[in-house]
Amino acid sequence: MYKLKEIADKVYYVGVNDRQKALFENMWPLPYGVSYNSYLIVDEKTVLVDTVDVCYSDIFLKKIADALDGRSLDYLIVNHMEPDHAGSIRLLRQQYPDVQIIGNKQTFGMLAGYHNITTGLYEVKEGDTLSIGRHQLSFYMAPMVHWPEVMVTYDSTDKILFSADAFGTYGTLDGGVIDSEMNVEHYWEEMIRYYSNIVGKYGNPVQRALQKLSALDIQTICSTHGPVWREYAAKAIDIYDRMSRYEGEDGVAIVYGSMYGNTEQMAEAIAASLAANGVKNIVMHNVSKSPASYVLKDIFKYKGLIIGSPTYSNRLFPEIESILDKIETREVKNRLYGYFGSFTWAGAAVKNLAAFGEKMKWEVVGVPVEQKQALNADKYAECWALGEAMAEKLKKEN
């Protein structure tokens, strides 16, 4: 029934689209949905690479049956055990009881824990190979990209990297599967958001994986989320390289909380100053309205970060505290940092923002601004000076 997309000769896309889920990992908004990608190689031996979320197992199993056309399934490669990719393993094993499950030692511990599967396992280690006929597969460990058991599979015959979550992105596949078949422009921002939300903390492991894989001739990337990268494979790799080095683009994210608009007026003054001094990429996030997913995306994207908060119960505004915790969890490095705050009778926001910058080891730019009650002319001038200092610093960095 299904007319399946061939990625290469006898390499089929058997993934599915999820247009129902509102929040990825029950946290991150999915305005464009998300795909769960799986791939089937039909050779002398048949090999499935990863499965899909169990919610879509019925469609998934039908696609596999159509591609196999009566043949048995010999191997399942498990590159990543997260449930959105490994959720259908138990049902797949019921459908194909003789399938050998390929993974590493870490994989098998999770396989037992999630699915109580402990038999029919084929363990691979770094650099091991498997010949399945015309296709020659090799396996490379990529721990903490972004789980400890993650590995990738390389098909040296067709120069395909089955990359687990690496190079993935939010967004369903709306008809096309390979990047050259579609307009991919909206995926780039979603890739940055996906990376900052999901992978962000693990920049060093991503760098180690990229260095290891640089020796391979990779012409096609088959990730577990988003398009198959071929025409834009180099761009996808470059984005992950820059993000994992915490290399921000030229621009500033202003992240602020405001209860009655006074702190927001400070943010507006700083933004106006940045623009007047030549900064074109400016994004402003009111943390009471902007989902954390998008705030984190822009913090990862841009080199400059300015955070503002009113004092609340002698602490930071709660939503600012929340986003700072998420930034710290991701260990974001190398940001140019400015900060400002306001209070009515006792100020605490600015000193807490100062302590956060020290903890993150960021370079402080400009003089912090602390405002009592409503914005006056002197404090407006100080906000302008903060924006001016950040603009000048960005120019020097370039």
TrEMBL record:
InterPro entries found in the cross-reference section: Flavodoxin/NO_synth, Flavodoxin_CS, Flavoprotein-like_sf, Metallo-B-lactamas, ODP_dom, RibonucZ/Hydroxyglut_hydro, Rubredoxin-O_OxRdtase
Pfam families for this protein: Flavodoxin_1, ODP
GO molecular function: electron transfer activity; FMN binding; metal ion binding; oxidoreductase activity
Residue span(s) of domain Flavodoxin-like: 252-398
Cofactor: FMN
Family of this protein: In the N-terminal section; belongs to the zinc metallo-hydrolase group 3 family.
UniProt name for this protein: FprA family A-type flavoprotein
Species, as recorded: Parabacteroides acidifaciens
